[in-house]
Write a structure and sequence with these properties.
The complex is a heterodimer of chains A (about 300) and B (about 100). Chain A is of the alpha+beta class and about 300 residues long. Chain A contains 6 helices and 16 strands. In chain A, the strands form 2 sheets. An 8-stranded mixed beta sheet of chain A has the order 3-1-2-4-8-7-6-5, with helices on one face. In chain A, strands 9-10-14-13-12 form a 5-stranded mixed β-barrel, surrounded by 4 helices. Chain B has a single domain, classed as Outer Surface Protein A, domain 3, CATH 3.90.930. The longest helix of chain B is centred in the last third of the chain and has 17 residues. Chain B starts with 14 loop residues before the first strand and ends with a strand. Chain B has about 100 residues and is an alpha+beta fold. Chain B is globular and about 40 Å long. In chain B, strand 3 and strand 4 form a beta hairpin. Classes of the chains: A alpha+beta (about 300), B alpha+beta (about 100). At the A-B interface, helix 4 and helix 5 of A face strand 2, strand 3 and strand 4 of B.
């Protein structure tokens, strides 16, 4: 088994043991994502501009109290390995304990600490620009996933499509057809919230879908949408025909668990996640959807 | 993924869920997580029942004693089916021989 962080870091033994270091600057920015606001301090002007450019209207002004505080620190270029990313599938390296989560990735090191409230720290050698925005987003994805887990919700690998009945989630890992279904739904006039990651939360006894600014080919990552009631969960199965079959609760939980990034690999939180996901499956709203490329699945969702 | 198809199982064998898996019963089925592979599987009612019975203490023969009270089937047939299914679950890496037995 490889040492945590060794794929990205020259000296993984020097991983920061606590939230400390040299801040990049004195700028702050707050993001109003589900579970937030999330405030980041220690940014320089270029980093703030990169975050604003990337997350648009999710950036909030005048936030007095944030739900999650994070700090940005400088890291040395020499701390990171040079990686040839051609044909390479990127996956963060995560290491969880009950009190903390350590992250290592391309030009980033991060920590989530529960003290007891969740707090984040991100170290990077990038002082702004598109590359920094990508680093920031990779950290933010993990932070939001753990924050929503704290709240009994989940971040899910899925496409979310708004309809008059609420939001429908189409679940599956890479290659399952999330972007294809998003394209087909969009061709039928539906709004795609995101074809990559969306949030599922239990609020006042109702299961709601919340848009996240983490998109692939479909969805506007700069414009929030209001929460929508969950209209249905659909496990994607590519086929030559279109059909729906109800999922058992076990099948639905298994599908959600497989599609709960980061937290589902955390042995310290997986049992709790199991229980949370059971509560997020409304009766008679979880289906296996066989779909063809003709888009004939769309009308049968409303039956 | 088959991890070991050579485990010999008879009615005296004592099995436990593999250390690599975590499982939870949901209604009549079970959700199984293979931690190393990061896979999530759904096991049917029979497999879920065997995972319940595989507590690292009771022998496969003792499982048959329990199951013969639950299912309307002859003991000889049940024993054969349980041994076959237990061997399949062991070959799939779901069950392993219990330590110290």
């Amino acid at each position: 088994m490889s040492v945590f962080g060794s794929g990205f870091l020259i000296n993984p033994d020097l991983f920061p043991a606590r939230r400390s270091g040299e801040a990049w600057g004195s700028r702050e920015i707050a993001l109003t994502l589900p579970g937030g606001p999330y405030r980041f301090s220690g940014l320089n002007a270029e980093q703030e501009a990169a975050v604003r450019g990337r997350f648009g209207a999710y950036c909030a002004e005048g936030v007095e109290r944030a739900a999650v505080e994070s700090v940005l620190f400088r890291a040395a270029e020499a701390d990171f390995r040079t990686i040839d990313v051609r044909g390479w599938e990127y996956a963060l390296d995560l290491d969880a304990t009950p009190e903390a989560l350590r992250l290592a990735g391309l030009r980033l090191v991060g920590r989530l600490d529960w003290r007891p409230d969740l707090a984040g720290a991100l170290w990077t050698p990038d002082g702004g620009g598109v590359a920094f925005a990508g680093i920031f987003e990779n950290f933010l994805r993990v932070l939001v996933a753990y924050r929503l887990h704290e709240l009994g919700g989940a971040v899910l690998h899925c496409a979310a499509v708004a309809s008059p009945q609420g939001a429908r989630l189409f679940l599956g890992r890479s290659g399952a057809g999330k972007s294809t279904v998003s394209r087909l739904a969009q061709e039928h006039g539906a709004e795609v919230l995101s074809d990559d990651l969306n949030a599922l939360l239990l609020e006042a006894g109702a299961v709601t879908v919340e848009k996240l600014p983490f998109t692939g080919d479909y969805g506007d990552p700069r414009t929030p949408s209001p929460p929508a009631p969950l209209a249905g969960l659909y496990r994607l199965e590519k086929d030559t025909a279109d059909a729906l079959r109800p999922l058992s609760r076990a099948e639905a939980v298994a599908c959600l668990l497989a599609c709960s990034p980061y937290v589902n690999a955390d042995a310290h939180r997986r049992d709790e996640l199991f229980g949370d996901l059971l509560l997020l499956i409304p009766p008679q709203k979880a289906w296996a959807l066989r779909f063809s490329l003709g888009g004939g699945f769309w009308p049968i969702l409303s039956r | 993924m088959s991890t070991d198809s050579q485990i010999a199982i008879d009615t005296a064998t004592v099995l436990r869920p593999s250390r690599d898996i975590r499982h939870r019963r949901i209604d009549s089925e079970a959700v199984v997580v293979r931690q190393k592979a990061g896979e999530v599987l759904v096991m049917n009612e029979v497999a879920a029942r065997l995972l319940d019975l595989a507590d690292g203490r009771a022998s496969v023969g003792a499982w048959v004693d329990v199951l013969v009270e639950e299912y309307d089937v002859e003991r000889e047939t049940l024993e054969r089916d349980v041994l076959t299914f237990a061997a399949e679950l062991a070959a799939e890496g779901m069950l392993e021989i219990a330590d110290g037995v």
